[in-house]
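Protein 1 of 2
SEQ + STRUCT:
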Amino acid sequence: MAQDQNAQMRNLITGYRDSMMLSDIKALIAVLFVAIMMGTVLQYREHYPWYLSATVILTPFMIIYLNLLISVYPWFPRAGRNRFPIRRNPDPEDFDFIADTEAEIEGLPALCAGLSRILWWKNITLLTANILSIACLAAAAILLFVVRL
């Protein structure tokens, strides 16, 4: 029974890491798209109505950009890990790999919980950026087309 639980935890950890890599790829593509789109929008700012200043135009882009960058920020679970010593004058023996399967097996639930929390925050920031971009498109349509009439 314990072997099945450990295998299940390892499978969850692998799935979380794969999902985090995929969400990072999505966020990086979106960062590139937002940067290109922001330049294009700023290029034609003379043609916008008087009430749309550069600050008003750039605010949603900056919030979306910030959410995407937070999503890509590398968050690594550090709780309870003593594998990489940080010392002023390290000895080569400090970096010898000692396989401690007992400690690794005991740390699987904590690692799984940490990766789950990281993936949740990555998804929340991506979702916030997506919802905000859709809302900004709707607001831009209202400001540009409806208010002019």
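Protein 2 of 2
SEQ + STRUCT:
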Amino acid sequence: MDVPARAIQDARMRSLLPVALAVLLPHLAIAQSVSLQDNALQDWTRLKDTMMKIAAAMPEDKFGYRATPPERTWGEQLLHVAEANIVQMGRLGSTVAPPAYDMKETSPAAIKHTLEASFDFGIAALKEQTDQSMLAQAASTRFDRFMGASTKARVVYYVIGHTWDIYGQMVVYLRLNGITPPASQRF
């Protein structure tokens, strides 16, 4: 390459540098501002939306439905999720009082309210956290036999995983009743 051509190429590269930086720097700033607490809050909030939709998908007269005799009823599945949410998210040490719940509840409206309240409690508990506090040890409960000593972050993702497991079971309940789960519906 001759000297004038090289100079032109260098000038073009120098003129592209500010454009490249203007495009890339915002993305680098975003990548550096990832937050454990914020990610957990986003995941929890999306899970609430998913679970409230599946809870609403089953007709209220089917809340007593169970796929096989030894399994929980639809309503009991929802209460099971709510109890796990309240107990496990309570391990984060929130200043917000956990909602009251009754595992013998049979009213569909009350069961859905309990489920929603359990997720709202989790949202409140997560909003009190910081990235640093999410790495601290969670409080102990009688349910520690499932996990042992854990960070608050591990507790959050444990209960999220648990809820997805129950969600999978609930999909079967819906399908056995001829109902397409909300997440599988095509609009």
